[in-house]
Structure formats: structure tokens, C-alpha cells
Protein: Helicase Cas3
Amino acid sequence: MRTAMPHYAHSLPGNPDRSKWETLGQHEQAVAKLSAGFLNRIDPGLAAWGDLLGRWHDIGKYSEDFQCYLASNGDSDVHSSEVSGKVDHSTAGAQLACSKSSPLGKLIAYTLAGHHAGLPDWDVATGRSGLKQRLDKKVPCWRAEATKGLEALGLPESIPIRPPHTRETFCKHRIASFRVTCLTRMIFSALVDADFLSTEAFMSPEQSINRANVSANMTDLAKAIDNHLGCLRSEAEPSPVNQIRDEVSKACVDAAELVPGLFSLNVPTGGGKTLASLQFALRHAAHHGLDGVVVGIPFTSIIEQNAKVYRGVFESLGEGVVLEHHSNTDPEQETTQSRLQSENWDAPLVVTTNNQLFESLFACRASRCRKLHRIARRVIILDEVQSLPVELLTPTLLAIRELVESFGCTVVLCTATQPAFQWQEDFAIGLHEIRNIIPMTEKLHDRLRRTTVHPIGALSDEQLVARINAEDRVLCIVNTRPHASKLFAELDESSANFHLSTRMCAAHRLHVLDGQIRPRLDQGLQCRVISTQLIEAGVDVDFPVVFRDVCGIDSLTQAAGRCNREGRAAEGSVYFFQGERRPPPGTLRMSADHGLEIARQFDDLLSPEAIEAYFRLHYWQQKERWDFRQVMDAIGRDPSRMEFQFRQIADRYRFIEEVAETLYVPWKKGEQLIRSLSESDYPPDRKLRRRLQRYSINLRRHEMVQLHAAGAVLSFHGYNTLTQRHLYDQKLGLVLSKADGVVPPSDLMC
Structure:
């Protein structure tokens, strides 16, 4: 009797010996085991889904067409080959799932159809990329003797979807649809991560070994931060501020054993909430057996600062404990292990941006969704949570609910003010049952108050500059980059004057902050800084005087946190003024208008009453803007139909609507890196790309067009680089107003 030839999942490049290839049976079992294990951690009821996905995901590879392709092409990278349209082995599993007499077949079908190219939309008007179109697509015959057992497998009978909250007043059908899409992404995440890891273990065993798990557990991390804070307390001089920091830390320790769920940590700036919140998170995770901690921070400008602190705390526990994952990660800190960890967040402590975290929760691409199942069963710290965009409030708050209620997370909402997102009758999308870690919030704000806000009305630029020049140490924060650069140019000539904005690359900003501004402040020297609002997001500086252009009260609170931060003076002064120019249309202008309205009603703009009134204006009474990007419309109202537009959802859920274009600038080491890029015959490798990122600036499309028109940009391997060095000022960064096509002789010299 003739023995049936085995079917293969992967070949080995340059090795025709099929006995060394991976069979489909081996690959299916490996993926099924991993994905079932990933989902079992979240909910034992999901394990069967993971097992089934693993067994069906590559059923299309049983076709003779695919087996011939694998043998003739020797192409081990079948993942990218399907994305590029060469091979389709994913549609078969989707069609099999939908052939079963269960509406849940569609949920399986989305994940199987998209496990390489990404979760599809249900219906696409043109083309054949929608799931609806792919279910009717003719695919190579894959049925064989070897597939009969797989075909006979049935779908699980149900999915573990939690019912809405008992006090729910928001549309329950919409919540149900939202939960199904979140569960689909979570199942998808488990499958694609299992598939990547299993394939890597066969194709690149050396790389797979580099993913060795970190030996430190949550208890080890909790002990490390306890020891670190103990050392800080023993070395700190007695002061009212340090006493309050100790009280905040103790409250976090006391709350750590409470039942997982939603918490708020409302501590004024300077109260030590960065380390105290992490102390709570690690102790809470250790006590409840959770898998790790994710820290979400609004802006990259403070991630490096916080991650550096965290690495110092956990240095003794070895490599791989802290994963810093964002666009400006320092390549000198990157290792092989951290690069691999960033693919799926397989690290005990992940420090990232809110942008990266939340956009991943709504993503459709496999590469961005891989990490999702590892976000489950973690403590998630959301720093400065009041900075969430109003236009995405409905889907964002529903996602926070889902993390807690369906995926076993504890979420800590950290703010320097009171919470903005508590459910109430006129705020139906709000969060339920938030527990305050610090019970005496108002009294704490009074004790930590080290500044007084003085509303001073309208100031011309001339008046503002005169007042800044009259101060020895002063910070002025304005709303736009052009305004910041104009004010800086009008200051008196002095080596004590500095400018900060995103027209400076990250390496340049860090150099100015760490190498010039902070040392001068520490030594009590003259230091005048003109900055955009980037300095408000947790940048650790301490000025006796701060001027803040009109803004929202939440931003004003952050600005006040840069004033008399350590309580060295009896009182710091924050001057709230109206500059010559209104903020640009959109969120900034709306926030500023609401801030002005509150300033007309309250004498104390940092009081809990003023802040609550601001949140009512800015969030609670903006119902028509809560889903301005129409994310919920792409999810739909009827969960039973399972007709979700996953790609539309991902496209609509973006913290920044306008896609920025990246320009690499020749500031210091950046010039050498650009030269390496230009002289290479090949596209840059990962290490060069990461190093270049720190010497980049994001521009709007019309700004890049302006530079191209001036002949100031050359592209190497698709990377836009600034060629006219005079356009990058050592104080201001990129100066677009000089891009007039006139090039000074110094720029022409080699």
C-alpha cells in the first residue's frame, strides 16, 4: 500500500532534504498549544478557541498548489508571500469556519482570513479583500485524506462575553458589538503570536532562544522598588513635600491588596506618583498573580526620563525586565532581547505611549495586534489620563472598561487633578466603580500647593518679553512653535536663554534639557526658557516663575507643576495670560476657550471646583464630539451579524489624524548617520533606523513640500534628509522660514 506523502508547513532555504522540513501536523500542533495557552490565561473558556484556531489556520496549505509552491520556490517566508499576493492559504480556513452551522463561524473566519494580512473589513465595495468577498472566493482544493479529522472539528458553543454593567445607560447593543470586536482581536492576537513564535522556533532557533523568559517575577520587582523607595527616604532631607511623598507611597502599599479593577491615583505634580503608582502596580500584580505592568505615558518627551529611572530600580534583576517601546527609543539601550520583546511585549514591565497602547487595542495588522494577549491580566498605569482626546472618548473609555471587565486587567488612572471620567447620569460613557487610592485628595492638593496662579489678561509679545527678561529663572509656555521661536528671538542676547519645541530633534531637546537647563537650575544660575507645551508632560524642571499662554485648566495644572516643584520657595508664581495669537483651531482652541470661561468664574483656577467645572465643559458636555471620528459606526449596533469593519476601525482610531512625514536632520551625530545612509547601497538596517530616529522631526505634508521646493531635501532609500544645514538652527531647530531656495556658501562646502 502506497504511503501518503506528508504535507509541509515550512521548508528550509537551501536544504532540499524534506526530512528536515516542518510538516503541517507539527506546525498545527505547536500553534494550537501556544494559542490555547495564551487564551487560557485570559479565560479558560477561550482555550478551545485557541486550539481550534491553531489547527485550522494553515489548512489551505494542504492544497497541491501550495505544496508545489513550497517545493519549487524554496520560499520560507510564506507569511510575506501571502501579503504580497503570491499565495493565499488563509481563505480556506475562513471558508471552513463559516460552513459550520453557527454564527460564531464569522468570528473564527476574521482571524483565520487575516492571520497574515491583518483583520479584514466585512465588506469592501471594490476589490476582494473584504471577508464577505473572500468567503465567495475560489481557492485551490485543499481537502485530502489528511484533512478529514480537521474538517470534522466543531466550533465552541459560546464565547465568554460579559453582560453590560447593571447601571449601564449607554446603548447596550453597541457595547455588545464593541466587546465582540475586542474579543476577536484578542483571539487574533493569540493566534498570530503563536504562529510567529512557532515558525521562528523552526526557522530561526537561535533567535528563538534569545527570547528566553526573564527570570524575575512580580514579587522580585515589588521588592526591588520597595528597596529603592526605602533608600530614597533614608537619603532625603525632611520637608513637607517629602513627607507627603511618603504618605502617597504608604497609601499605594495599603491599596495593593484590594480586589483588581479600576483605581485612580490623583496626586498633584511633585507628589511622587510616578514611583508610587509603580509600587502599587507591582505589589498588586504580585498579590493577585497578574502577569506584569504596562505604563502608558502621553508623550515620548517623558518616557525616556521615566524608563531611565525604572532601569535603575531594576538593574540588579538582569536584562529584559524593563521594555521601553516607542518611536524615540534610544538605540544604545536596545539589545537583541529588547528588540524581540518589542514585537509582542513579552516583558514584566513595559513603558510605552498612550498612543501606542490604545491604537494597538483598535489595530487590525498582525504586527500591531501580536502584543494584545500580553496586555491582558496586567496592571495598566495610564499617566496623565486627562489628556485623552475628546474626539475618541467613547471608544477609549469602552476599551478601558473592556480591559478590566473582560481581560482581567487592573487600570490605574493617574492624574495631577481629580478624575475626569467617573460615570454619572449626564456622562453615560463614564467609568464605573473607580476607587481612589488616596482618599483625602482635596486636603492633599492643599498641602502640596506650592504655587499661586495669577490671571493677568492680555499681553502683547513686547510686554511678555519684557516681563521674561526681568526674571532670572523663568519658564514661558506657549501654544505654537512659531510663537515660541518668535518670542525667543526677541529676548535679550544671553547664554542663559533657551528654546524647546518639536522643531528640534529628540537628541537636541535632551541635550538642551540635561546638558544646559537642568544644571543651571540646580546651580541657581540665570535660566530663561521659551517652550511649547511639550515641557508640561512630566519633564522634571523647577522654576520659581512660569508664564502660561491661554489653555485648558488641565494644561495649566501641568504648567504649575513646573513651578516651585520642590517647594524651595515659600510660593511660586504662575501667570496665566492671553497672547497675541489665539491657539490654532481644533482641540487646542477648544481647550483654551474653556480655560478662559473657567477663569472668568473662579478666583482659584487650581481648586477642585474649578477643575470639575472645566471637565464638565471640556468632556461631559461635549457629547457630539465623544465619537467624532465615528469609530463606533464602523463597529455597528448588531453583534449577532458580526459584520465589522476592522480596517476602518483602525484607520479612524488615531490619536493624531494627520499623517506626519519624517525628516532626518544633520544635528551633531545626525550628520554622520545621514552620511552612512547616503553612502550605502542598501536600505538601512534596524540599528541605523533606530539611531536616525533620534535625529528626526515630524512635518506636515505642506511643510515637506516647501522644503522640497527649496531644494533642501534629498531622499536616500526612501528616507528624507535635510541637506541645507543653515535651515537647522542650534537654538531653534528647523527654521522653515529660511527655506527660500537661497543657499549660503557654507552649505555648499564639503
Observations:
- The CA atoms of residues 455 and 603 lie 9 Å apart.
- Confidence is low (pLDDT under 50) at residues 78-85.
